[in-house]
Amino acid sequence: MKVLIVANGVVRAGVSRVLSLLSQEWEKEHDVYLSIFRNADPSYPVGGDFLLKGIPFRGMIWSQVFHLYKLLKKYPFDRIYGFSEDANYPLSIAARLAGVPDKVVLTVHNPIQKMSAKVQKRITQHYGKVGRVLAVSEGVREGLISLGLQQEKVTFVPNPIDLSMVDDAKKLPPSIELPKNKINVMTVGRLHSHKGFDLLIEAFKRIDNNGYHLWIVGGGDEKEVLEHQIQALSLQTNVTLLGEQENPFNLLAQADFYVMSSRLEGWPLVLMEAMSVGLPVISFDCPNGPDEIIENNKSGILVSCGDVAALSEKVDLLAKNSALRDSLGWGALSRIEDFDVKKVAKQWLEV
User: How many CB atoms within 10 Å of residue 164?
Assistant: First the structure.
């Protein structure tokens, strides 16, 4: 099978990690090609050959459409995947002009709540005119249908995780050694209000946390806001912002459990990554994804979204109960096998 992947770029973002995993897995059995709008080196390894890398800025959208049209007319692709709205919109137009709309699968990774009115309008007007639309969670799928897309046109397939890669990465020497005399609570993500780190810090303040330490991995615009909150709550000795880390897996492997406090997600890759190293997890039951990944009280704990008091209670419970941590950790390892890239990559190609 000849597969073309179209994306704006391969940058440090969740959708690019998905592109990286799938392209490398598909390349094992198929001919994989990439068309990337940005003229920049990929932030993650990719499988396949570049047919297009970098498009002149002038008349951006129509320049993208023109270059994609030429590719689609020249090469007989069996399947064409768009990754993110920046790629989906020009791809949907180019595919129709080239007469191959039925070969296109537009993938949607964000909930409609994160989308501007302009993007939602494009989805309504263009996405229904190609072969399929792939949503990475049931919540994202329901949002797309609410915009007017036909139910039979939109398919849910989850994002993958590479369990063999995680196993190798967690064994590498860590850049930071976490204290062994503390209960180490870990969370990872961009420092943005959507991630709800302010709620997690507030929850941490509510418990007797002298023996606990919260580690927040990631960078972003909210760093100064969170630093001020930590100081205002006198949590400097109990909460640390670690910034971005090249390899979060060997940090996760040292933690006692993981907490996700997001207000909104599309499909939380970091939650799967934590589970893949055998960490027990606590997560807000936010839209979208946590309740599709976690089997409550079996492979993790779900907490009503935004309920800081309940989150604080569950953090304290898990910190004090090693038997529960062990049970949920084993449950997480069992559950996460359902999302291994070897299985999920085939599901994507079957759409």
Answer: 10
Over residues 241-251, the pLDDT tens digits come to 999 998 999 99
For residues 328 and 274, the answer to whether their CB atoms sit within 8 Å is: no
Burial (CB < 10 A; 0-12, 13-18, 19+), residue 219, is: middle
Complete DSSP assignment for 271-302: HHHHHHTT--EEEE--SSSHHHH--BTTTBEE
Pairing of strands 132-135, 104-108: parallel
User: Would strands 257-260 and 183-188 be described as parallel, antiparallel, or unpaired?
Assistant: parallel
Return the structure tokens found at 257. Answer: 């459990």
Q: How far apart are CA 194 and CA 179, in angstroms?
A: 29
Complete domains list, the chain, with CATH = 2-156 (3.40.50.2000), 163-339 (3.40.50.2000)
Q: Within 13 Å and on the Cβ side, how many CA atoms surround 299?
A: 21
DSSP per residue over 150-162, as a string?
A: -GGGEEE-PPPB-
What is d(CA 210, CA 208) in angstroms, rounded to the nearest whole number? 6
User: How many CA atoms are closer than 13 Å to the CA of 308, on its beta-carbon side?
Assistant: 12
* pTM for this predicted structure: 0.90
pLDDT per residue as tens digits for the range 70-92: 999 999 999 999 998 889 999 99
- Segment 276-303 shows an average pLDDT of 96
3-class SS of residue 69: helix
Specify the residue for token string 């390892």: 333
What kind and span of H or E run contains 188? strand 183-188
Name the phi and psi angles at 227, rounded to 5. Answer: -60, -40
